[in-house]
Amino acid sequence: MYQQMIFVNLATNDVDASKEFFTELGYAINPQFSTDDCACVVISDTIVAMLLSKQRYADFTKKEIADSTKTSETLICLSAESRGKVDELVDKAIAAGGTATGETQDHGFMYGRAFDDLDGHTWEVMWMDPAAVQS
Questions:
Q1: Beta-ladder partners of 47
Q2: Does pTM top 0.70 for this prediction?
Q3: What pLDDT score was predicted for residue 132?
Q4: Which of 101, 26, 43, 2 is closest to 10 using CA atoms?
Q5: Of 1, 6, 84, 111, whose CA is between 20 and 30 Å from 90?
């Protein structure tokens, strides 16, 4: 059965620093699809972040590349299996040089926090009680 994937392409100022950052979060770098100007970060079997140098990113668009430290070009939201896993991932991101952003969202059945990576891309991490989804 075909399983659709998502490849999130993000411009980065420093490919090596970004590789180190995401490795510290516990993600693997796929060397088969990584080069000096691109890092392939495997988030799950169906989610991959392609971290491209700005020069490489420019090969795919004619638009101006956003300065993600000043302009929000995307919000990436990842699910987590528990509230504890939300905290674990966001705390790792902050320890690795990321920045906490936004307010903690705690609605009882849903819990989330967010961080900006080294380039200012915002990553939200969210847990939702499976019982709330089934209702």
A1: 6
A2: yes
A3: 84
A4: 43
A5: 6
